[in-house]
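ok so heres the complex, two chains, lmk if somethin looks off
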Amino acid sequence: MADINIIIGGPQGGGIESAGQIAVKSLVLMGYEVLGSREYHSNIIGAHSYYHLRASPERPKSLKLPVDGILALDAESVFTHMFEAREGGVFVYDPSTAATRLASIQPMSKALKKRLAEFFEAKGMQPTVESALKVISDSGVRLVGLPLKEMLKTLSERTGSPVARVSRAVNTLGLAAMLYLLGLPRSYIEKAVALQFAGKEKVIAMNVEAVGIAIEYVREAFGQPDSLPEGPKRGQVRMVASGNDLVAMGKIVGGLGVLTFYPITPSSDEALYVEKHNYISLDGGLAEKLGYDKIAIATVQMEDELASINAALGAAAAGARASTTTSGPGFSLMNEAISLAVQAEIPIVVTLWMRAGPSTGMPTRTGQQDVLHGIFSGHGDAPKIVIASGDHVEAFYDAIKAFNWAEEFQTPVIHLLDKYLASSMVSLSRDEVDPSKARITRGKLVEKPGEGYRRYEVTEDGISPRARLGEATMIFTGLEHDEYGGATEDPVVREVMMFKRERKLKAIEEGIPEEDKAVLHGDRDARLAIVSFGSTKNPILEALDILRGEGVRSRFLQVRLLSPFPASLVSDMLDGADKVIVVEQNIMGQFELLLRAYTGVKPDSRIIKINGRPFYGFELAGALKRVLETGEERVVVSHGS
Amino acid sequence: MARKWLDYKTDAWVQWCPGCGDFGILNSIYRAVSELGIDPEELVVVGGIGCSGRTTYYVKGSNFHALHGRAIPVATGVKLANPHLNVIVAGGDGDLMGIGGGHFVALGRRNIDLTVLLYDNAVYGLTKGQAAPTLPAWIKTKALSSPNIHDNINPVMLAFAVGFTFIARGYAYHTQQLKEIIKQAVRHKGAALVDILQPCPTYNNVMTNKWYEERIYYVEDEDPGYDPMIRTPEDFAAKAPSIVSKLLEFGDKIPLGILYWNQTREPFEDRLDKIMPGYKEAPPARRRLDVDGRPFLHPFDVFKDRLVAP
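and the predicted structre for the whole thing:
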């Protein structure tokens, strides 16, 4: 079964992202399922970034190392990825970098330089690209040096544009050479280029010409490679979308009316994607049914995260589906308002894209460090809903469900995701993001309830009829209040209202379906149980497949609802397991703490990754085997550049 | 429809200290909104934290008592969701000039159609008399152990600098004049500030009624030639110097009345409607979101920039 793995490395601002997307689109056009992810520094231009992708007939569950093809667009990329190509793979580079010395590469981290310098010294080699190439070649990888300067000259001649202009296509030259050597036919690469630069005819023409030049060169130098077989989805219209995109889509499909945000990685791309699609025309039939023909979503960049969440609260109180999106540092600023949302019973959705903290940490790298921050956000007794999506498809539907639950239970919903989901993209079929599989439920929303309306009416399930601001007299308030919202410090009313809000937790437990609380994957009765949440889902599933292939049966419990924690369901799902291993991306064991606190289950071991890079299935499988063999309490996995 | 001011009175006990300027402000609000004929259901008072924020419990409306400093963002969100509502922000000097100062600045940039009533007594009353951002330097009120060594913010000048399009100053004990100012502020389409000077009889023993009465004057009385109205960009160029000098006046003499009124800038909600025609007609708060209980947009039909089609 075809399994194609690629890394494209180069300087930030050097077209790495677009090269990656062209590669993804080429493979999707060929009928493959693709997973692609962007790793980058907190930098605008010059620092090393790379695109890592994998394609196979079924959707890849995680990225893989070593890879089949590496495109190193600069000397730093040669050094950084010199150990990441598999035997028999190809390593495409620019021969003019051969003499470059490690020490002369400015953007590279001092630590990596030191590690590599020690490696070369131990081998008795000079710390140069040439030495790196020798190491790569000695490991059985085919080196493909592309004379990029000459190729750009040819491109300039053929397009009649100056070299300075066509040099922007240098990434396409390298990419086309690599893809062709991996067996991708020229036509798919050209079509992907046209899709990538849709609407910019001159850019397309230049890049298509670049594809031709690169392919002519490598065919001449290396002969025609065997073609990859076509994948099962060839000929279908597919979608390629990131987690950021899919959450934005879910929100819009789910009825988003107001999105407020303050720029912060890795949430901004979600907001920008909403902004791009915040005005939608409806066709006649639909417009007639709905009574309006334009969807206009107020998408507003606020002055800070305090304003973002408080404006979302105002908008939600006025009756719109309102949301804000942020990551750890921004969420810290939102804490006070989370508490207000709980107390005033306002349905907002906060999308929390976790990144590698604490503090500013590594802003562009992934992690799962805001589990407890999300769950225990807000001062006071603050019951709220926290859900964690396991993958891109879940992220889409969860964005819709988050609005439903916020409105049904009139409390904030925190949708927990991470940088890996944010900036990785997958191929999808039409039926995988099907709105007819979703619902819109607005709970006890009432129209113009008239005199005597009680915003905080005490009810059996703790949930009161909710009127929009502007349709009844009322007071939304963060002070303790009576049924009308009048401020009070009466001890009896205080208890009544505390119990009212507490009853909502029971309503939530009863109202959220089991499959949205926790999912048991794999061999349900296996004695080995892996427990995790969030984007570790698919890497764990891949690891399970690998273990199964080696005769080890296991079950995987994916917790989706982190608050209120589905304790009895999780306990039931762990029934009969005699070895429990937690997988998570933080060092304090935040998820493990929840598991222990709510179920009393003490995991035997945990596998963690804290280097800011996503889990890979192969390394998880290795770590699981190690735990089974040695019984180690903690295994740290560390792959990724 | 004309209403009686009593229609806006709630049954809540008003908790302010006897003689508090807040009473005058509350009465002026009652009378202004009743004369404007705004139905209580369509009146949204958003309060901050402090004595002023309690206004949300005393004016019958569809109200929101927000966090300290965050009344303006909440009000902004209300307007984004439903630009047809009448929204008044009631906040103190600590709330709007201190902890929420950044939001005040941003509101000016956006010129959202909101009325900000700044209850300006130069102290933090509810927390027992600390110095607020509008307390002039070297004043030592009785709760302070030493004189205030912070200089004071000039709210009207700040509002001008950041883009408010209606700027006025009132005095809490002059309810008749204050009512008229509030009416104009609410009528104005854009960000309006009414800086309302008020004694805090409990904690500000320096800036008393006597202190204010010795200094305040109405511009229309003492300076009949003063013209705050900007109808064209040329107007602005011609009148800005005199307006700025009036806004800067705060010392032995303190001007009251409408100090600046710019009708040349469109409010934010009009800009949203300009880039998204139909926004005001079917605002986010009022749109139906489902057909038969389900979403009606398919991502493959809407987000075509993410499609890879053979």
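quick notes: The longest strand of chain B covers residues 254-262. thats all i got rn
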